[in-house]
Design a protein that fits this description.
The chain has one domain: Rossmann fold, CATH 3.40.50. The protein contains 6 helices and 6 strands, in the order E-E-H-E-H-E-H-H-E-H-E-H. Helix 5 links the parallel strand 5 and strand 6. Helix 2 runs parallel beside helix 3. The termini are far apart. It is globular, with a radius of gyration of 15 Å. Helix content is about 35%, strand content about 15%. With about 170 residues, it is of the alpha/beta class. The longest helix is centred in the last third of the chain and has 16 residues. It has a 6-stranded mixed beta sheet, with helices on both faces.
Amino acid sequence: MNASNQPSLAHDSLLPTGRRATGIKEIVIVDSACEKYSDFIAAAEAGEVGLHFCVDGTSAVRLARRFRADLWLVAGDLPDMSGFDLLDILLPYVAQGAVDPLLGGAPISLDHVGEGMRSGVFMVADSYRVEEEQRALASAAAGYFVGPVTIDMLRTGRSRQQAQASA
């Protein structure tokens, strides 16, 4: 990252130096507006996760070819392509976890992400549009989030799902 806390390259990484939390260990955020993810940066700096930013679809495809992340957050609008186009390109490289579109993706989407070789690609929108959510789930995205997305939102979702699974 450069002095203005913005990625200096198309792909920039914040690798944790400390102990990582179990489950979701590596996160890739594909969004040209990296400033929206300050809590993810703080978690990476604290050693909780490995964090990788791609500011466009091209750099995300290059990263996916050589790196496996537990979780991908993909913005709907990227400088060089739509997030949906990127999702179609990423799917051959990213092994998705189980998703049930009849349940809207949410109840089980975070359940096994980060276990074994399972990853999850989530579309992120600035405002809710039912058409985009349906398109995301039909495109095999693990889910559809409306920003701002926070790391606590992901933790809460996983905790709730794990509690339901053990009950």
